[in-house]
Amino acid sequence: MSGAGISAESGLATFRTESEDALREFGDNPPLWSRFDPTELATADAYNRDPAMVSHWYDWRRQQGARATPNPGHHALTTLQRAMRERGDELTILTQNIDGLHQAAGSEGVVELHGSLWRWRCLSCGDEREDREVPFAGYPPRCGACGDGIRRPAIVWFGEVLPEDAIDAAGEAASTCDVFLSVGTSAVVYPAAGFAEVAKARGARVIEVNLEPTPISGVVDWSIRGKSGVVLPALVERALA
Ligand code: BJW
Ligand code: ZN
Fold first, then answer.
1. Which ligand is nearest to the CA of 225?
2. Which of 101, 179, 220, 228 has the highest local Cβ count within 10 Å?
């Protein structure tokens, strides 16, 4: 299970941090919710109130996403996934991230719990399609399928239900895995945060990789403090040795 922290070393801002030390370390790229109000941007109400403003904000996010490339943390997971497949095992990557960097690193079958920065859904006809155009042309963005419906980012905002197939895949992986890795997530946003505990309750070993302690640090078997771009390559190298 990855969160925004795994993409921090690709230059993408995280959402929140618990420590002042970490806040200083983020320098001129501080966590998003330390400078923006999520209720003004990441809810359906906010979008209905001001679709142009919210769309512009996501344009800015897409501009950053378009420039970002996977870092050694993403690549390490791809290496692990391929090596495990060769041995007849499986590594399921569950991500809360909407940036697509796991896929860009070559990981397969990535389960996107919170949607994607690169997909849009029409509020009228429900058509959902990929669009990587940055910046997006015209506000509010109109649907290419039905012609006049307004499109919204296919991202899961606060108070919205996660995609059913993603929840099912995450539940299945968490309840059947031998090892559950929680990487770069503050583990406060539900239901995603609950899967580590599901895995633990079903007997999996749980490993956390994070710069700082989180609410699941007391539950996990190992809590490794450090940057995922450093820790994951080292972990994977040892796991495959
Ligand atoms: C590093 C690092 C490095 C940094 N290396 N580590 C119980 C109580 C109260 C509220 C709720 C509740 N249960 C559910 C809710 C509501 C809500 C919720 O959980 N709120 C909590 C905040 C309390 N959940 C929802 O609303 C969800 N939906 C839902 O519950 O629906 C139920 C429902 C039922 C029936 C009808 C209707 C509804 C949906 C949640 C969607 C979350 N969406 C967002 C925004 C997307 C939009 C956008 O991106 O613009 O998704 S919120 C934001 O947080 C984003 C992330 O995916 C998500 C998780 O954040 P993540 O990934 O953990 O990042 P950070 O920044 O929090 O943490 C980064 C971590 O990395 C830190 O710990 C750093 O230390 C670390 N780090 N650099 C390693 N180099
Ligand atoms: Zn439409």
1. 1
2. 228
CA of 146 to the centre of ligand 1 (A): 32
Question: What tens digit of pLDDT does each residue of 93-128 get?
Answer: 999 999 999 999 999 999 999 999 999 999 999 999
Those residues whose C-beta lies under 8 Å from the C-beta of residue 80, and which sit 6 or more positions away, are 91, 236, 239, 240
Contact 107, 93 (CB under 8 A): yes
Question: Span 68-75, mean pLDDT?
Answer: 98
Cis peptide before 140 (omega within 30 of 0): yes
Task: Give the CA distances from residue 131 to residues 7, 11, 134, in Å, rounded to whole numbers and listed in that order.
Answer: 21, 22, 9
H helix or E strand, kind and range, residue 130:
strand 128-130
Please, what is the average pLDDT of the chain?
93
CA torsion angle for 49, 53, 55, 61 (degrees, to 10)?
-130
Relative to the alpha carbon of 162, which ligand is closest? Answer: 1
Q: Which of 200, 189, 157 lies closest to 5, judged by CA?
A: 189
Among 56-70, 88-102, 136-150, the range scoring the smallest mean pLDDT is 136-150
- Cα(194)–Cα(191) distance, rounded to whole angstroms? 5
Task: List residues near ligand 1 (CB under 6 A).
Answer: 3-5, 8-9, 14-17, 22, 31, 42, 96, 98, 114, 155-161, 184-186, 188-191, 209-212, 214, 227-228
**Predicted confidence (pLDDT) per residue in 195-228, tens digit:** 999 999 999 999 999 999 999 999 999 999 999 9
Cβ(98)–Cβ(82) below 8 Å? no
